[in-house]
UniProtKB/TrEMBL annotation:
GO terms for cellular component: plasma membrane. This is ABC transporter permease. The chain crosses the membrane at residues 9-30, 59-86, 106-127, 133-152, 173-195, 233-252. Keywords: Cell membrane, Membrane, Transmembrane, Transmembrane helix, Transport. It comes from the Bacteria. It comes from Weissella koreensis.
Length: 277
């Protein structure tokens, strides 16, 4: 019992350390005053200031477009990359490819950002939306591969052989057996790619240019000139958006639970009303 209580207390403390700074930012987004030292009253004026700032709203929209576009492309490339790794039969070659895939996962963001900057400069690629998009796709692909590949490894190869014995061609095996089975990993990879794209600062800081910016870079630039509670309002909006993503991901990856719960509620309702009339 003591171990369980200590474990719960430790878990509560961890959650407090994780979420207390975020909640502090969100609470003062509703502050009537302009400082974070004292809460003077409830107000929505900082949200109004945020949405009235057309430059900031434009950056917010660009950030979301970048995150969704890079996540979709990274998910497509990463899924087929995981399929390619899955089909490698030689263990040493598979481990080598996985190690190369994991380089971007373990490398410091500063090194990755500087490397992309040098690559784009040597390649004559203009820094802007295109360079940031390519960089976000590149560092999101390994994440997708690492989340899709375990689902492929869990899949029973007898399912593929059975589909082939029934006359399915390669496309049908892929679309009706392999991809549906690995769908949870694909969805997880997509949402993780969105999270990484929205969160990234170091890599984006190196490869952005031509007037294009993302929220992380813009917040950093504004924070250097002093605290503005419109940034708190922006943080509250981003937190709400992240929470919506988590809820969507939960419902997509756990459809059977909700269907089962709905059936149970329907049955209990029918019993309470004496059956179907």
């Amino acid at each position: 019992m003591k171990k369980i209580k200590i474990g719960r207390i430790y878990l509560i403390l961890v959650f407090i350390l994780m979420y207390a700074p975020i909640l502090y930012l969100i609470v003062f987004a509703f502050n009537q005053g302009d400082q974070m030292s004292r809460f003077t009253g409830f107000s929505l004026r900082h949200f109004q200031d945020m949405f009235a700032d057309h430059h900031l709203v434009s950056i917010l929209i660009n950030t979301f477009i970048l995150a969704f576009l890079s996540s979709i492309l990274a998910t497509l490339i990463g899924t087929f990359g995981a399929l390619g790794i899955y089909q490698i039969r030689k263990p040493s070659l598979k481990n080598l490819v996985l190690s190369l895939n994991n380089i971007l996962m373990v490398s410091p963001d500063v090194i990755i950002g500087a490397s992309f900057l040098i690559l784009f400069t040597l390649g004559g690629i203009t820094l802007g939306f295109g360079s940031v998009l390519l960089a976000h796709i590149a560092f999101s692909i390994p994440i997708v591969v690492l989340l899709v590949l375990p689902k492929l490894n869990e899949m029973d190869t007898a399912l593929i052989r059975a589909a082939q014995d029934l006359g399915a061609n390669s496309y049908q095996v892929l679309s009706r057996v392999v991809l549906p089975y690995s769908w949870p990993g694909i969805i997880a990879g997509f949402f993780m790619a969105i999270t990484y794209s929205l969160d990234d600062f170091a890599v984006t800081f190196f490869v952005t240019g031509n007037g294009f910016s993302t929220l992380s870079v813009e917040i950093y630039a504004r924070a250097r000139h002093g605290i503005d509670l419109s940034i708190n309002a922006l943080s509250a909006v981003m937190f709400l958006f992240s929470l919506v993503l988590v809820v969507i991901y939960y419902f997509i990856t756990n459809p059977k639970k909700h269907k089962g719960g709905l059936k149970i509620r329907r049955r209990s309702t029918i019993k309470q009303h004496g059956g179907i009339q």
